[in-house]
Amino acid sequence: MSYIPYTTASPNSVDKIFALVDCNSFYASCEKLFRPDLRHRPVIVLSNNDGCVVARSKEAKEIGIPIATPFFKIKPLIKRHRVSFFSSNYALYADISRRVMSILAHMAPDIEVYSIDEAFLDLSSISELHNIEDLQRYGHLIQERIDKWVGIQIGVGIAPSKTLAKLANHAAKKYPASGGVVVLLEPQRRERLLKITPIEDIWGIGRRLSQHLQNSGIKTAWELSRLAPKHARQQFSVILERIVRELNGDPCLELDDVQLKKQILSSRTFGRSITLLSEMEQAVSEYTTLAASKLRQQDLQSRHLSVFIQTNRYKHDERYYYNSASSYLQLPTNDTRTLTASALHLLKGIWRSGYHYNKAGVILNDLYSAQIYQPQLFDDNIQNMRDLYLMQTIDQLNLRQPDSIRFASQGLRKDTQWTMQRRYLSPAYTTRWKEIPRVQ
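Above: the chain's sequence. Below: its structure in token form.
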């Protein structure tokens, strides 16, 4: 195998400086935010229908609660250690994420929101950051501001490439002595970290590739970084060549621009099985309404819609059935009424009686920016404006009081027993007026 000598630029001569900011135990931290009594208590967050553990606080990890374990299996452990548990509160998590990302956007010229709880920052053009000490201080400033303004703890990894920034962030969260900030510019420090990082912990290395590399004698990030880029490309892939270069501080990945979404999916597993078409129509209407709302939030329109329904494939005592249908709309739209009418028409074509359905979904494809869509010659522009204002008004009312305006096809909320079960849902502290916490 061909290897290369270790070379790197000095800290003052690197062209790019990336920071990865990652919120610590994000879902669990959001639940603790408005509950000071839970500050040092183990907290877990459950999946849809309260099925299994999807998030754990540091304390929950320490007592040995595994991720993805079924909720019912750990009830003795929960009782023994007084673990607090919550259903997934997506509205709360999304709002806290928005606040964190808004602060980060003011602290760096360029930002890539990578997920709900992490973002890459490009610090290269900030003229005040001259050396490692400046970067260390700036990392702590980001940390302090997020903590003070939002109340969420974060880890910060700073390095000359996105892959190294990921590793630096991992080290910042793993080693308390770092204070939650690791700057990975010094060659010696980088070498030490790469030598103790297993190959499977590298960003972009999947399970299959990890096994292939280990079979080839490459077991650590350091050993991978010694591989000649040309050999990595010839024997493995262009992607691995980029990873090798990135591990050596040669940035190959820029911040991703915000791109137009390719599709919007709205789907849930039901709280109980559906056997009636009327109930399935309510569910499909509900999911179409949610998808249409997401379209308008992102100023998009859709021209292609798909609907799917399915039974539980794991219930062997019941017949399995899955089907889907799609159609193109005459014109791109984000009007809930038009999309719902099309979705219900598709549903009737795939519905089969005699089954116990446990899931349905609506997918919007062929998305266009609402700002660049070209009106057709015979479009009724006056009616289009009325439709636009109607949807905007509904969105504004539902923003003030969620679910205050519903379409008839969705049914009454109190009558929809099939909806996702969230028995342990915390209040929407930041998005509903009635649930804003009161100071005693």
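The chain has 14 helices and twelve strands.
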